[in-house]
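Action item from last week, closing it out:
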Amino acid sequence: MLIKLNHILMFALVTFFLWMVMYPIYIKILKKLKVWKTIREDTVTGEKSTIFAKLHQHKAGTPTMWGGLFLVITLIMIGISLLVQKRWWINNSLLSRPETYVILLWFFGMWLIGLLDDFLNIRWFGRKKGLSAKAKLILMFIFAGFISWWFYVKLGVDYINIWPFGWEIHIGIFYPIITFLITVSIVNAINITDGLDWLAWGLMSIILFVLWMVTFMNQTYIATTLVVIVIAILASFMFFNIFPAKIFMWDSGAFAMWWLLASLIYLLNMRMWIMIPFVIIFGLFILDTASSALQIFWKKRFKKKLFAVSPLHHLFENKWFHETTIVMKAWFIQAILAAVAIIMLFYQLNWAFIG
């Protein structure tokens, strides 16, 4: 196990080094190509987003499409893993049918969708700049449906582990339906929360750290290595990108990250009791999404706003706190939720061992 951990940490360090070298070059390329952020002008329901535009106008012109470098570094690390495997320095590369095929399929497929949206947004194609919400939702539905079908038909998974309420609860044909809804919900929740510099990605880093521990305990070391590579990329991204942001992730990186998270949850569900701990560490995303959904419902039902602006982090930004204050407080709360989830996971393992 110590040898496996050593290999995993070496991959993390190489990833961090690659980012440190390539990041400044990538920023210069984006600026030269004028690949920068435009400010959203409309809300989901069609009105002008005047408060949001006022709060974030200073971010216009910041380079974006961070996902391009995310993809390049990930591909380089996959290539390095194949090389060192060929040299017999490690037993397995990052390409593993039982552990990473599905993850990487989601990762690259959703990266392409995000890249298309970024390109259309940058070039101002379309009335709303980029893919419409409807178009993105349709593409998400197609991908989520395919992956749910894959787990159910190809991998034979028809159960959900929701300890302490039950162990493997077999739900049959309802499994792909439920996982489809969960996937779409996860993607949209992170999308809604991604409104302040490093809010969503700081929270995501903490979640991925928990999942890194879980995959390692589960002895799925190849998946663990892939997770730690992503954590290293996010950590190095933060190193250069602490407020004010020098580059934005946008959908080419965000879409890949969201689906990486969803696929990890389903893979871990096959072997461990991850669902309830995940709900706990995903709590802030759920809260932010609920505020946005409530705002939309209120405007549709009562023809007026419930909040001055939504989701919740923008309301705090507009009424009470500076952007960095909101982000740091959110990270603090997320760390507490992560500790609760980790304690719960260790308790479950101990209980299962004693039982």
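Closing note: The longest strand covers residues 159-161.
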